[in-house]
Amino acid sequence: MKITIDNLGKIVHGEIELNDLTVLVGDNNSGKTYVTYTIYGLLKNWTDFVNYNSFDSIEKRLRIEGQIVLEKEEVLSVLGSSVISDSQQFQRRIRELFNDKERILSTAQVKVVFENPVTFKDAVKKISVGDTIFLKGEMSANRLTISYTKQNDRDIDGKLFRKIVGDLFSSLVLDDIFPDPIIITAERLGISLFYKELDEKRNSLIEGLQKLDESDGNMHPFELIMSMSAYYAMPIRDHIGFTRNLDNIKKNSSSVDASYAIDIVRSILGAEFKKENKQDIRFYTKNKRANKFDIPLYLASSSARCIVDIYFYLKHLAKVGDVLIIDEPESHLTLGNQRLMAKLIAAIINLGVKVFITTHSDFLVKELNNLILLSNDFEGKLDWLKKNRSYYLASDCIAYNRVSVYQAKAGYLDRLNVTRKGMEIPFFDDEINKIFSVASDLDYMID
């Protein structure tokens, strides 16, 4: 899938393709956040690119026949006409995505293109309208069967029918192309610290408005609530919502075995997290030792507050096909823990979850490069792994062709080279060479 971005904030033009690991680097204020939020918004609202009117013929057939069967060739034909690369609806959504009240991004354009799938995953989806109208879609052996039944003479209008059929078709055919996104924003430190206070202030506001006398003004209290909008972009609002919803999230279990990745989180922090019903998130140690502790998250270190959402995602939500977006995963981590973060990223990728990161850390990149090197076959590899078994496992690796790197520079996105020996990022190397050159010159002159 290739995403094209034009005239979006600092970005004049850029094209980006998501890989198993996608790394975005660049100077401060170079447009990385614009790109990150756009990718998140597109993946979350990819149905904006579905042309529901293209399902008109399927609607007519279903109303007459009750059930239709589409062979693979016909599925691909419908797919070709039902997905548009340039969505006016998504262009309008950009304002909501960035909370662009001043319409600064009114000329922004985002397009998406993808290769048609070769095969389709077997799956079943059901949609009901009330208690009397039912639609079912089943993909089996690359054949799509859609059925429509109703239990009385009541029916639904054409526009809604096409929307339902389009959603049914899209979820069965395009689900693997557009992964479910989870975003961990750079604002995570504040979100984990203040989310309870945000909830309390919101509840106090609602209680106060409920007590207002409507005679005091023309606006109903709840109209006032609805007219108020957050000052945050959609990804930040969703991140806040994720943290607020942990009481419900923790009722789930990830569909993948994330135990190794969670062990790495424990290694980074020396502790882990828990969330009791309606209580604060707590940071605690299980082992009985002298420095055992059990404290609320707001008393924990900044590193703990920066990684808490990754922990709960891995434990309760992670599934194959997701894309986990992490803004600056190295934030508030020591150099040693940045190395562990690189291992954590590799472990998440090897679960079947795509990872997209922005980073300013050459150290994180260097350790990711070590894991790319480790994916190669070379003489003495087993002996090396045995010698370093206290830190590396054979599975702690990332094949170079699973990694893509982009640099935001002068309004454009440059794709950088990735080889068997790792990511080549002159943006980092040049600055490192400069500082070492200065240090060498000064050291020589002092001696």
Low-pLDDT stretches are 225-229
Mean of all residue-level pLDDT scores:
89
Ends apart, CA distance between termini: 56 Å
What's the helix count? 15
How are the strands of the biggest sheet laid out side by side? 9-13-14-3-15-16
Characterize this entry briefly.
By secondary structure, the chain is an alpha+beta fold.
Please, could you describe this protein's structure?
The protein is α+β, with helices and mostly antiparallel strands. It has a domain of 113 residues. Helices cover 42% and strands 21% of the residues. The protein has 15 helices and 18 strands. Strands 9-13-14-3-15-16 form a 6-stranded mixed sheet, with helices on both faces. About 1% of the residues have low confidence.
Supply the key terms:
about 450 residues, alpha+beta, 6-stranded mixed beta sheet, 4-stranded antiparallel beta sheet, 15 helices, about 20% strand, globular
Please write out the topology.
Layout: E1 2-8, E2 11-17, E3 21-26, H1 32-44, H2 56-65, E4 67-70, H3 72-82, H4 88-97, E5 109-113, E6 123-129, E7 133-140, E8 143-150, H5 158-173, E9 181-184, H6 188-210, H7 221-227, H8 234-244, H9 246-249, H10 259-269, E10 272-275, E11 281-284, E12 294-296, H11 302-316, E13 323-327, H12 335-349, E14 354-358, H13 362-374, H14 381-387, E15 403-409, E16 412-416, E17 418-419, E18 422-423, H15 426-446
Parallel strand pairs: 3-14, 3-15, 9-13, 13-14
Antiparallel strand pairs: 1-2, 1-5, 4-8, 6-7, 7-8, 10-11, 11-12, 15-16, 17-18
Helix pairs in contact: 6-8, 6-11, 10-11, 10-12, 12-13
